[in-house]
Design brief:
The complex is a heterotrimer.
Chain A lengths: L4 H10 L6 H18 L23 E2 L9 H5 L5 E2 L2 E5 L4
Antiparallel strand pairs in A: 2-3
Chain B lengths: L2 E12 L36 E2 H13 L7 E2 L2 E4 L9 E4 L9 E6 L5 E13 L3 E7 L2 E5 L6 E7 L6 H18 L11 E11 L9 E6 L2 H20 L8 E5 L4 E4 L12 E2 L6 E2 L2 H9 L5 H12 L3 H8 L2 H14 L2 H19 L10 H12 L5 H13 L4 H7 L8 H14 L1 H8 L5 H12 L6 H12 L1
Parallel strand pairs in B: 12-13
Antiparallel strand pairs in B: 1-10, 1-11, 3-16, 4-5, 4-15, 6-7, 7-10, 8-9, 11-12, 13-14
Helix pairs in contact in B: 2-3, 5-6, 6-8, 7-8, 7-9, 9-10, 12-14, 12-15, 13-14, 14-15
Chain C lengths: L5 H9 L5 H19 L2 E4 L1 H16 L10 E5 L26 H8 L3 E6 L33 H8 L5 E6 L5 H7 L2 E4 L19 E6 L2 H11 L29 E5 L9 H16 L3 E5 L7 H16 L18 H12 L2 H14 L5 H24 L2 E5 L14 H5 L6 H6 L3 E9 L2 E9 L4 H14 L15
Parallel strand pairs in C: 2-3, 2-4, 7-8, 7-9
Antiparallel strand pairs in C: 1-3, 4-6, 5-6, 5-10, 9-11, 10-11
Classes of the chains: A alpha+beta, B alpha+beta, C alpha/beta.
Chain lengths: ~100, ~475, ~475
Amino acid sequence: MALDKSEVEKIAHLARLHISDAEADEVTNRITDILALIDQMQSVNTEGVEPLAHPLDVVQRLRPDVVTEENQREVLQNLAPATEDGLFLVPRVIE
Amino acid sequence: MEWETVIGLEVHVQLNTQSKLFSGSATQFGAEPNTQANIFDLALPGTLPVLNELALAKAVRFGLAINAEIGKRSVFDRKNYFYPDLPKGYQVSQLDFPTVGKGELTIVMDDGSEKVIGVTRAHMEEDAGKSLHEDFHGMSGIDLNRAGTPLLEIVSEPDLRSAKEAVAYLKKLHSIIRYLDISDAIMAQGSMRCDANVSIRPKGETEFGTRTEIKNINSFRFVEKAINYEVQRQQDVLEDGGRIVQETRLYDSERDETRSMRSKEVANDYRYFPEPDLLPVVIDDAYIEAIRADLPELPDEKKARFMSEFGLNDYDAGVLVASREMAEYFEKVVEIGGDAKLAANWVSSELQGLLNKNDWDISDCPIEAERLGSLIARIKDDTISGKIAKTVFEAMLEDSASVDNIIESKGLKQVTDSGAIEALVDEVIQNNPDQVQQFKDGKEQVLGFLVGQAMKLSQGKANPGQVNKLLREKMQ
Amino acid sequence: MIEKTVAELSAALAAGEISSVELTQAYLDRIKQYNQSLNAYITVCEEEAIAQARAADEARAKGENSPLLGIPLAQKDIFCTEGVTTTCGSRMLENFISPYDATVVERLNKAGAVMLGKTNMDEFAMGSSNETSYFGPVRNPWDVKRVPGGSSGGSASAVAADLCAIATGTDTGGSIRQPAAFCGITGFKPSYGRVSRWGMIAFASSLDQAGPIAKSAEDAALMMNVIAGLDEKDSTSIDRPVEDYAASLNDSLDGLRIGIPKQHFAEGLNAEVEQSIRDALAEYEKLGATITEIDLPNNHLSVSAYYVVAPAEASANLSRYDGVRYGYRCDNPADLEDMYKRTRSEGFGDEVKRRIMVGTYALSAGFYDAYYRKAQQIRRLIKQDFNEAFKQVDVIIGPTSPHTAFELGAKTDPVTMYLEDIYTIAVNLAGLPGISIPAAPAGGLPTGLHIVGNDFAEAKVLNVAHQLQRNTDWHKQKPAGLGQEA
């Protein structure tokens, strides 16, 4: 399936990626090529085949409801680009 | 034109587990920012989720309480969107295979009519953190303590037809949740949150109108106000020949209005897919039955029992079971006081009045069930009269001593000593010769006056029955 | 000494022929000499390594002994290492110092291994040539004009050039096996769920699996004995007893049933590589194995299905890199959206962005059924093909890659690069164990023999690999000429 540039822009926005005008054609072509590869899947009839989400046929393990974690704020906030008063700072969130 | 309102509620409740849904971080309300957010909650690279068994059990517990289908195989999915309070860039939720499927609950309206409301599903998911919009040099602050707290999202069918029904449904849900002890369900703290999908249609129409979703409603009262506002707004729009836009609206309680959220309306595309870091959650009948066996008596059952066992009427029983704490308080009062009707009267009038006056929860009330029970026991064994009991009740507010101590120290004990009563009666006969004569002439009603005089003399402490009897004897 | 296997080094350490400090220093010296040309390491932990080596020597002096005690190894830079920069080959994590250890790292540390450093890799493990790394391409010690394969190219190059005794890798579509093939060494991908993924930076969660990159199958078994097994922190880690993988290495192959997929000996396979594979099969026949052709009818769809599943999972896994809590953040964001978009566009390389885009597209409204669901259905068909095959055979053998290592810059088109993993990808989709071991070189470059086992047949795969290595010396061949370069 061939993509057009507006679709590429829409996907880029969903993925929060910025695609410059200079890159747009190249990106669109590459992704179109990849989709062509992917579309080979359509050659096989999979009607009635149960999707396999996971290679193992096992079930979820459960964890007891116990608090195991201590406050590590200082260590963890050292990793952050911007913090203040124990909060992570980001450009203003508008609701 | 006559319109019909159609409402469906999406209620989020935080499950009251000690640790988070997928990590061992604490979930306490009100902690310092980011002190309850570990490497998983911050979505550090390489971290992975493991499901909290108690959160699952609590979700199943809810499902059983509303007679829902329980998903024996539930699957977690990723719901993808970017927001600074969502560290992974996706919320782990359940799309196609929720833990709780179709169920129902019954609401009772003020006129006593009942209505069954369908619950479409209840699924488990993670809560997000909080964005604090105070001005940090033009930036927002992010607190991730709440991120990963287990939530149960309970989705109703569009079965509600008025704001009042919506509130009744929400209160019933709240009551069940508190009985089950699966959530604190405190709306003001956000441990219970409600979004309302509201639409209107001409009466008789079977198709639904376009709906709006109202968010940010954080009290029962606001649910009613927000819905009423929105219904009126939609009606005005339609009657002016306008069209309802499907959108999310925010309720502003200060202005009592809903308004459209300004966020760009790029249609949300959450790109759900099965969460590959988690496996299907499979539970068997034995697991479900063990949880069923552990279910507490729920409000409807309790109400029926109060009516049959204690002879309470529908209304009183309904009031007493509305909250688990109130019902438990009442049962304790009955147990100690030994008189259910008296207990019901005291709890629903004196006590309820006190709570309302002070805006207290039952747990805030300085008069504990044990003491109110003793008070009733003292009425029943004639230690005090009902009237004196009100004095004692007032005193109990200030004094944490036992009921007997208060009666004793304030000298409120009913006078039953026949010598003392005889002296009282003699004094009354002596002071009221005219009335005594009237009685002797056959004017029976005067007896009441004379009894009243005796009681007054005793400052209410004399046993009215004994006074009555002795007066009659002496005047014969 | 540095060219020896872990098994040999362990014996030398136990015999007191060399100390771990001496051995560690020898590797550090060699890293200094060759890392500039090979670019195999992103981070070298000189001081920490010497300290760990000293601790290992002290432990040994107190009477402790275990196969990895004091053995200098390298960690792929996809594993979180406490206090050490963990980049995942990306600008996004260029300055990310992990506050915790991956389970694989923790277990190797506990076993007394010495971590020399963190190896280069394709960015977020997305690549088959190690050219997508933000830290520059890794070079193949057999010919520095050639790629080492990817994504675990740094680990493969380091092991092949004796810049460590053994290394860790991860394999999502062939990322351990293909570089092992290109570099003439042994790379083992265990069954999905056998090794914990905790602390291993996710590319595609349902496909990623950690494993050893080693100089022999025996060494791979020794590392597996340490890293395999249940981890409560990873829900997909399997609760199943771990065998002693070294114990069954010498089991006889008499009567072994080998299946060779006809699809893997078809068009596209280089003739010289095919000859090397057939020579190896002949060796197995000498050891008593029987060879049958098998059919994997849906194998040709594995690359297509993979390039839906892996990018879809990756698109979500990489959403956490938003510049809020750690990692790269763009300068002076104008607003929130600008922060997201520039942080991610500047922090990720082209291949990563491409895969995020493809994955986002495949999951977006209206396409889910045609792409994601369809791919998961094909995944089941592929798994069923293997299930059928393993009714007839014990292991499946073929080439790891259709050719030998190619030159840097030779494959610029993503789709051509994706087809690199045509023989290995189905194994990840099915969650099976697979190993690549050297077959006879072709044109002076290494070739890889791919051995695949049934679910959790790790011991069998390692046994089959080891027996070839006992009876041939292809795995002992070293890159010529590297020793003379400086």
